[in-house]
Structures are given as C-alpha cells and as structure tokens.
Amino acid sequence: MTETRQPLTVADLTPLARAALGPHRTPTAVTQLRGGSKKGVYRLALDDGTTAIAYVWSPEESYWDRPDTDIRDTFSHASGLGLFLSAHHRLTELGVRTPRLYLADEDAVHLPAHAALVEDIPGGSLEELLRRDPAAARAPLAGLAEALAVLRECTATGHGKAVLVEEGGMPFGDSCEQVVADRAVTDIAEIAERDSRARVARQALSARVRELRAAVEPRRHTSLVHGELGPDHVLVTPDGTPALIDIEGLIYFDAEWEHVFLRLRFGSHYDALRVEDLDPARMELYRLALHLNLVAGPLRLLDGDFPFTESMREIAEHNLARALELVTP
C-alpha cells in the first residue's frame, strides 16, 4: 500500500459499527483483509469479543484506474453498494447463503463513502479448507453444488447485470456469446500492446475467437451466475454451509460462463460441481475468452499501484500460456 492509500482506522470505522450494532458496541482493533482490488474489506474486533466485516466502496480503496461503470455493460466494473444490495437481496430471497447484512450506509453518513457492515463468518474460506482438509470440504462442496443448482433454476430471457435485467433494462450486446466474443477481441488487442508473444499470436487468437463464436447456437434463456466463483469467494460456516462473497458481479448469463471459471479455479475438486448438460461450443468459446481476460485484467492492475504484483504477474503468465496453447498447432 502506498502513502496515498492509508487503511481505515478504528476511529474511522467506529461510527459505522455503532450505527449498525448499537452505541455500546465499540471496535477495539481493525484489520484490512488482503485480496480485494475494488473495495476495502476490514475485520472489526469489537469490545464484546465478537467481530464484523466492513465493506467500503471508495476511489481510495480501488486499484482500478478509471473503471467503466456503465451498468448496461455486462462485464463493466462490478463494484458498488447498489450492486451489492441488489445481489444480496436476490441471493437471500433464493435461500443462497451469504454473510448477513447489518447495515448499508447508502447516504455515506458514517464514512465519506458508501459502506456496509456484514456478518463475519468464522469458518474461513473453502479455498483454505480444501488445502487443509479436503475430506472436510466434501460437505461444503456438495452444498455449493446445490446452491449453483438453485441459481441455475433462476432464469430470465435477457442477459446482463442482475439488477439491470430484473428492472427491465437493456444491456449492450445481442447475446451472451457475442458479449464474450467482443470482449475477448478487445482483450487480445490490449494484451498484444503489452506482450510480444501475444502480438505474434494476435491474428490467430482473434480468428479462433471468431471461429468459436460462429459455432455457438442461439439460446433463449439465461441463468443467475456469480461470475467469479473461486473457492476464495466461498466462506464456510461452522456448520459446513457455503456462503458466497464478492457478490456484486451477479449476472444473468450462460451457466457455461460460471462453469469454465469453476473448472479453472477448483481444479481437481471441480468434479463435485460438474453438471452434464452444458453446451460444449459455449464451453470452448468461454474457456479461451476467460484465459484472455485473466491476462488483460491483471496487466491493467500492474499498470497501477496494486501491491500484490507477484501474484498478478503469475495469473497473467499462467493464463497467457493457456490461451496460446489453444491456438498452437
């Protein structure tokens, strides 16, 4: 973190905590949690021995330079209290577990930014559990598969950010596959400006995207998907229930988009989440497009002052290698 990005303090977050939990509940310590690039995430230790999590959406907490926030763009910057509240309401309505909301400061009364205070789920992430005790992770994985089935049953005729679709708005792009293909071509151009290997392969990558897009047949419905559901975005409650976090990217889209990400991030554990009726043509297109985006996004972050540069370089390098493999004879 640079000198211009000072983390919030106990004094900063005390008004939010008291408004949410009562005037006699006072934070005694605050820890900024690592990993987020779009919002600040802070664990508050309270004077009664409990804890809570604060989300803070402000330019000072985001490492993205001038992000696109047009809600009509399905893949625009998925951040903000409005998107969070919409997604939280929808998931709660469907019975899909996510940390309980204590307070949403929609008028930025308690901080000079939109903020929310939510439940701190003490069981840690599914990613940590899979690493530490894969056998103990079987029940949460099964629960996650059930939650994904619930989301998939929640359908719409349009695509786009969940709040846009549910309010009857019109997104950019005629279809999920076209939106993905268009972004993939943009990502290729952006990556080629930064990496000589991508410059050499630019024509082949673009041609492959067009070829895969042409092979996809039209579809009349979409499903709710988290959009970035890795095991680090699943917390495990003490009773083994999976709880989804980083939910602002909730969209109506093809289930295949969710599953290419799940397959990439869960690796050998993906079998517990696998379903058999996915469209192979969509999977092929979305697999290449996802690898490309997981190069372009990290490279954008590296242009700024994101502090965890080594991990971003590793993500970009790994996914560039996978994308190039898909067009190498």
In short:
The chain is α+β, with helices and mostly antiparallel strands and 329 residues long. The protein has helices spanning 10-21, 81-94, 126-132, 138-153, 162-166, 176-194, 196-214, 255-266, 280-302, 309-325, and strands at residues 27-32, 40-46, 51-57, 101-105, 114-119, 155-156, 160-161, 222-225, 234-236, 242-244, 251-253. Helix 6 runs antiparallel to helix 7, helix 6 (176-194) runs parallel beside helix 9 and helix 8 (255-266) packs across helix 9.
Question: How would you explain this protein's 3D organization?
Answer:
This protein has 329 residues and is an alpha+beta fold. It has two domains: 10-119, Phosphorylase Kinase, domain 1 (2-Layer Sandwich), CATH 3.30.200; 126-325, Aminoglycoside 3'-phosphotransferase, Chain: A, domain 2 (Alpha-Beta Complex). Helix content is 44%, strand content 15%. Strand 9 and strand 10 form a beta hairpin. Helix 6 (176-194) packs parallel to helix 9 (280-302) and helix 9 runs antiparallel to helix 10. The N and C termini lie far apart (43 Å). The mean pLDDT is 93.
